[in-house]
Amino acid sequence: MEKYFSIGEMAKLNNISIETLRHYDRYNLLNPDYINEKTGYRYYSIKSFMKLDIIKKCKAIGLSLDEIKDVMNDYDSLGSILKTLEKQKDLVNKKLHELNTIKESIEHLENDIKDSLAIGLNNVFIKYNEERKMIKYNYSGRYTEEFEMNLRKSLVEIEEMYNTFNYQIVFATSYNDLINKDKLTYTRTMIKTEDALNTDERIIILPKGNYLTMYFDDTFYDIKKYYNLITNYIKENNIKVIGDFHEIYIITRANSSGEIKALAQIEILIEIDI
To answer: What is the pLDDT of residue 114?
Structure first.
């Protein structure tokens, strides 16, 4: 006579909850082998142990309950099961790519924060950068409603086009206006992302080289004093610069009162006599 196990015994022997077994029953994924008509108690056989093993293995590779049901229904079709496994492997590879992208983003952010803490805020130093790929937008006029709307549209576009949140907002500011007019002029907006396609016509490359750099951590609205620090350093040390400044935002945060603060850096390419 075949031995039967109560739902409690089935749960205990297979390290699974009673509620999960009931859910599988309601879903017609794993029904009891016998139900006592008088008591309504559910009982399972050894065969159900094996079915449950299959369900656990399928769940372990991320299959949904519907996909598991298809696997169990295609008992005689190894080809069908293979297709399901190949499909799931593709999904896992996609998730791995996404996780690696997130990991890289975390590592870049972690390194930037560590560098800013090690070097110190408001200290001018020379940093060598490799070539960096940017997507260029020609709108400027920062701190206006129109500018913020354009920036939001650009960020949404990047997120949708490249399926990434791994980017930095970069502003170009005029070196000549700062030196000659004591005026902070934003000339263009850029978004730095390693995911950008080379076929994107808006891509520009910031050249590799030595950049005079300074980290600061403050609100968006009192930035000129940091530009003054770096321009004074340029004058005092008779440094030859190339092009304009870049204002690169590393991480922005807000407190419970809604006050916004950002860790950012100002940089400008320089010539170094050998």
So the answer is: 95
